[in-house]
Description:
Elements: H1 2-9, H2 13-40, H3 49-69, H4 80-93, E1 100-103, E2 106-112, E3 115-117, H5 119-137, H6 145-164, H7 169-186, H8 190-209, H9 212-222, H10 233-245, H11 270-302, H12 307-331, H13 350-377
Antiparallel strand pairs: 1-2, 2-3
Amino acid sequence: MFELKKHLRNIDYPLFIMIVILSCIGLVMVYSASFVYAGMNPDIDNPSFYFNRQRLWVILGFLVFLVVSLFSYRKLGNFIKILIIATLVMLVLVLIPGVGVERNFSTRWLSLGPVLFQPSELAKVAMILYFAKVYTNKRDKLHHFGQGVLPPLLVLAFVGGLIVLQPDLGTAASIVLACGMILLFAGIRIHHLLLLGVTAVVGVALLIWGADYRMGRFTSFLDPFADPAGDGYQLIHSLIAIANGQVTGVGLANSVQKSGFLPEAHTDFIMSIIAEELGLIGAVTVISIYFVFMFKGILIAKRAPDSFGRLLAFGITFQIVTQAMINFAAVSGLMPITGITLPLISYGGSSMLITFFLLGVLMNIAIKGNILRREEAN
């Protein structure tokens, strides 16, 4: 009981408030973006269908967050091998015909009864924990590329390759970027980091060039109006939604694009609906919260009690922020469409629970850091 009270006294309230705000924005906007589609869909015929499910996921997510925030992040290191094995097994299973669930020409889900789960979401947790733990233990070998840097990268490449086969290049890229930030803050030599960065860029270019649908997305990103009824359709209607919003928006629930024009309005393109209904003011507000979250996460990492906590906090922070930035860039036409959702805001179950899990770990690191600082002050 004493430990519980100590933890509660040292909660990072700014972090908690940001999580609550983003979750509430998500609930409101999922309902607003989906009620027309859900009401018109004969298989659903319930305007509140997606909102009700999202509300359940948010409640479960907060329970996960609260439990994990009270569980010492140091103990998570004991589960890394199990997580890696479970992740690899599920990523392989999802590619087996008849086992993986296919939607929109992608096989990214496993059916767990009535619930669909994305193994790539578990990969985020597994790889962040793995990289944070391994590079904490290899601090004295980071100057040696072969012994210190390379081995975990081979595991990352294998996991990323399985995710790309789904195909889901966007999620694979976000995981690689988050792990890259862990490498950076672990103290890798700059020329090694540059070499890895160039390798990653070349790899992505080859993946885009090697698949017609990826090349179509890339060319449509450069000129969406060249194929307005095909590859450029989603981006064009996303840009129309953003343009319609102007500065103050057309008003909550008044979006035109969500009424059958913009696909995935409540998932991948929910930011477009925010921009249309709440305008530039609403969009900038949401983006600003993620930037504040980034600086808060960096501060938590700097105040972490040990190297493992520091690298783990950096990895979690940049996993969430990177995912948000990729989503912003895709819906606004600054980069090709990736199919990445907006953390805590877009509709989705497994993504929501994994995000809350990661945030619970980040909160625990913040609590441990606050306890240590108070003890040192006394």
